[in-house]
Design a protein that fits this description.
Layout: H1 4-15, H2 28-42, H3 55-66, E1 81-83, E2 91-102, E3 108-118, E4 123-125, H4 127-138, E5 141-142, H5 144-159, E6 163-172, H6 173-176, E7 187-194, H7 195-198, H8 200-211
Parallel strand pairs: 2-5
Antiparallel strand pairs: 1-4, 2-3, 3-6, 6-7
Helix pairs in contact: 2-3, 4-5
The structure holds guanosine-5'-triphosphate (GTP) and zinc ion.
Length: 212
């Protein structure tokens, strides 16, 4: 008899995509182009007609670009660090625009990420590095909740701040252009770690600065 709890736990474990880099298959572009040709044929199109002749190759390159974050470890960016012993206040980078791809439908997700952290021991990273981390995790087949968590986890792993808060607001094309067809609806996800996880007042203060 199947142990449902064990199955659920395995599924959950498998869902934990590693934060680090995958290796890119040597024949990735060729396989992608073949797959796109198959899709065109399956919908009844003729991949040899003039307008579609270069499409499989173009789409193959496009996928390798939008999934480029699979082949990097975004945590590397956070290794650029500075110290400012006297800085004990929160650092906030708002409105980091990103594009991602939902892993269920492989349709675009676009939105803004806001990242805040409370440095520990005056340990800072470059402001642009927060945007690079968001970009790195966005350029993967993603779940918005997982992406929010991964950004927070990367900050904890490398910068070890006293607290971190990540908010992502995004529109999912799989909800806008197909299925339920609910254009304009936005999904908001938040992850708080460190002292902001339990300090409600501090978390609300940072949240209002992030979203204000
Ligand atoms: N939690 C979460 N769900 C997502 C995300 N991106 C897409 N989804 C949802 O994933 C679900 C997949 O549901 P399914 O019933 O398996 O697929 P479907 O029949 O295409 O679902 P519909 O979109 O409702 O037509 C949908 O409800 C999507 O809205 C995400 O980042 N996080
Ligand atoms: Zn989707």
């Amino acid at each position: 008899m199947t142990d449902l709890n064990a199955t659920a736990m395995t599924a959950c474990k498998d869902d934990q995509r590693p934060l680090g880099a995958l290796s890119r298959p040597a024949d990735a572009e060729e396989r992608l182009a073949n797959a796109v040709r198959t899709i065109l044929e399956a919908v009844g199109e003729n991949p040899e007609r003039e307008g579609l002749q270069d499409t499989p190759q173009r789409v193959a390159k496009m996928y390798l670009e939008v999934f480029g974050g699979l082949y990097e470890d975004p945590r590397e960016h956070l290794k650029t660090q500075f110290s400012a012993d006297q800085h004990h206040a929160a650092v906030i980078v708002k409105d980091i625009r990103f594009h991602s791809m939902c892993e269920h439908h492989l349709l675009p997700v676009h939105g803004k990420a806001h990242v805040a952290y409370l440095p520990a021991g005056g340990r800072l990273t470059g402001l642009s590095k927060l945007a690079r981390v968001v970009e790195g995790f966005a350029r993967r087949p993603q779940l918005q909740e997982r992406m929010t968590d991964q950004v927070a986890q990367a900050m904890e792993d490398v910068l070890a701040p006293e607290a971190v808060l990540v908010v992502i607001e995004a529109e999912h094309m799989c909800m806008s252009m197909r299925g339920v067809r609910s254009p304009g609806s936005t999904t908001v996800t938040t992850v708080a770690r460190g002292t902001w996880k339990h300090d409600h007042t501090a978390r609300m203060e940072i949240l209002s600065l992030l979203r204000g």
